[in-house]
Specification:
Radius of gyration: 50 Å
Largest sheet: 2 strands, antiparallel
Order of helices and strands: HHHHEHEHHEEHEHHHEHEEH
Strand content: under 5%
Strand order of the largest sheet: 1-2
Number of strands: 8
Distance between the termini: 130 Å
């Protein structure tokens, strides 16, 4: 080792002792880390697993790195032991001892002979060609071990994190899925007969496949943390699991809706019959009113009243049939559709009645207005005025005759109003002979 001479100045005894203390501490730390890695649950699982994909590729590299790590550590231990033996020869080391120690502690004095598989699969340092033997200084060897340890631990921790998180969650979700399948079967939600049944089958297949993928290729479900260089920096990627969990939750809500239908189906059917019956009665009332309007109101276009839609009654009968045969999965969507259609039908019937009776409402409003002005005129002592009586009688004959022309009757009511307003606002002679202004009273 001393043929070429020590690298740089020869170390003195204090420098040698400090270096040996530092290297000894590093040796203990590295040994502790390697033993922890060797006993890591993730590493043991990786050794016995049937791996695929990116995990298989990275484990082959990590396994070779771990093998190489022990070879490096053994070489490091041998070098450290040799240095300690040289230092322990005598209390005060000779010049020759210090030269040898300097070469051993600072020079590329450590030769590591690794297996072809280990050196081929393990990642190389700074573009190293992966030779079967390499020479290192102790400092460089420590750096190399730290690098290999970090990459190996990162892989092991990531795989273990995924295996610790996802399979258990998938199993819990699968158990919930099984309970949901049993409940769905009890209410008639089956594949091929209800969309929720088809969804349950798809979720079952997806979860089975997902679990197999997680077990064989956990690193495919690892999400590395942005900007993190620490081993195991990241978290399991639960995107696929979360998607299926949401899908199962939607199916559960669908099943709950079917269960709700089973519990209150009869009450909902009764309400539906009542709503449709009210709609039929309203349409019948509109048809009668239309006949009355055509007989009593002239020159008016009265909308035609359609009959009740038979399709709703047919669907109601189908819903009752579903209930009798406990086909809750078919009854649920049909009831929801029927309830909305029934409300729409009742609203249409009411609008039809309003449209048909609108001319009668206009006539009633005109009659009320005419009588209100007559009462106002009477309060002011003008009820016997011949002109007003003539105008009132003309308007009344039009409003109480059949058929009534609303446009002509409205003009007659307006003429009576105007005449009454003129008389109410005109000055009158008081009993003392003086003029009396009636305008103040006209607003009463």
């Amino acid at each position: 080792m001393g043929v070429t001479g020590p690298p740089g100045p020869v170390m003195d005894r204090d420098e040698v002792d400090r270096a040996l203390a530092r290297l000894g501490a590093e040796h203990e730390a590295i040994e502790t880390s390697l033993l922890a890695l060797q006993d890591h649950a993730g590493r043991r699982l990786l050794e016995g697993a049937d791996l695929t994909g990116v995990t298989k590729e990275r484990w082959e590299s990590a396994d070779a790195s771990i093998t190489l790590l022990w070879a490096y550590f053994d070489a490091y231990s041998d070098a450290l032991r040799s240095a300690r033996e040289i230092r322990s020869r005598r209390r005060w080391s000779s010049r020759e001892d210090l030269v040898e120690l300097t070469e051993l502690l600072r020079g590329e004095s450590v030769t590591v002979a690794g297996s072809a598989t280990a050196t081929a699969n393990a990642p190389t340092l700074h573009g190293s060609s992966g030779k079967l033997s390499e020479r290192f200084s102790l400092v460089t060897l420590v750096e190399r071990m730290n690098e290999l340890y970090a990459t190996s631990l990162d892989m092991v921790v990531a795989a273990d994190a995924v295996w610790s998180a996802l399979p258990a969650r998938i199993d819990l979700l699968s158990a919930e899925l099984q309970r949901t399948r049993q409940l769905a079967h009890s209410v008639g939600v089956r594949p091929g007969e209800h969309p929720a049944g088809d969804d349950l089958e798809r979720i079952t297949r997806t979860l089975t496949s997902l679990r197999e993928q997680v077990i064989s290729d956990p690193l495919a479900f690892w999400q590395r943390a942005q900007g993190s260089s620490a081993p195991g920096g990241g978290k399991p990627d639960t995107t696929a699991y979360d998607r299926e969990a949401r899908a199962l939750e939607e199916v559960r809500r669908e099943i709950d809706a079917v269960l709700t239908v089973r519990q209150d189906a009869e009450a909902r059917l009764v309400r539906l019959r009542d709503v449709l019956s009210r709609a039929d009665r309203t349409l019948a009332e509109a048809r009668i009113a239309r006949v009355e309007v055509l007989a009593k109101i002239a020159a008016t276009e009265v909308p035609v009243v359609s009959g009740p839609p038979t399709v709703l009654q047919e669907q109601l009968a189908t819903a009752a049939e579903y209930r009798r045969h406990a086909q809750w999965n078919r009854l649920s969507p049909l009831l929801e559709s029927l309830e909305q259609k029934a409300e729409d039908e009742l609203l249409r019937a009411r609008e039809s009645l309003t449209a048909v009776t609108a001319p009668l409402a206009v006539r009633a409003e005109l009659r009320g207005r005419l009588d209100a002005y007559k009462a106002k005129v009477a309060r002011h002592g003008l009820a016997e005025d011949p002109f007003l009586i003539e105008r009132y009688d003309a308007a009344r004959r039009m409003l109480w005759s059949a058929p009534c022309d609303l446009r002509v009757a409205e003009q007659a009511v307006l003429r009576y109003q105007h005449a009454a307003a003129e008389l109410l606002s005109a000055p009158r002679v008081s009993q003392q002979g003086g003029p009396e202004d009636r305008r103040g009273e006209s607003s009463s």
